[in-house]
Amino acid sequence: MENPSLIKLLPSYLLAFLWTYTGLDKLIRFKQSRKAFHNQTFPPELAEILSYAIPIAEILLAILLVWSISRWWGYLGSLLLLTVFLSYVGLIWVGAFPRVPCNCAGLLDSMGWGSHMILNLSLIILAIGGLWIESKKKKPEKI
């Protein structure tokens, strides 16, 4: 079995930390987080679903990224969720919505939309790099 170097594990651990931090923050401050989802421009039914689904998805992605057997799926899910977030932030940045509440965790709350764009793009690149690392792992030979 190959002993992965820290550089190969760094993308998964950074993303796992991000998802754990943001997911737990939304769960710990659930009442405020739910209210923030309902303050978005989504229909109330979608906001209610997202108030539960987003933190659960973030925690699930963190778990997937920790174990090598599921890491590829964690990267793929991270790429998908980050792309959705990037698209939403991009729409906010260009003024597509009448109001722009942020339901980000902790320090991310204080960032401007340009900083959100840069952070999301950086994290997308990190997820793509992780997918690339995972695809380069030695595959078992078929018999």
Structure, briefly:
The protein has 143 residues and is mostly helical.
Fold and architecture overview:
The chain is mainly alpha-helical. The chain has one domain (6-135). It has 5 helices and no strands. It has helices spanning 6-28, 30-38, 44-66, 71-93, 113-135.
Mean pLDDT: 87
- What is the makeup of the main sheet? none
- Helix segment tally: 5
Overall 3D form: globular
Q: Could you tell me the strand content as a percent range?
A: under 5%
Give the tally of structural domains: 1
Poorly predicted regions: none
Broad structural category: mainly alpha
Number of strands: 0
- String of helices and strands: HHHHH
Radius of gyration: 17 Å
End-to-end separation in angstroms reads: 19 Å
How helix-rich are the residues, as a percent range?
over 70%
Using brief descriptors, characterize the structure shown.
143 residues; single chain; mainly alpha
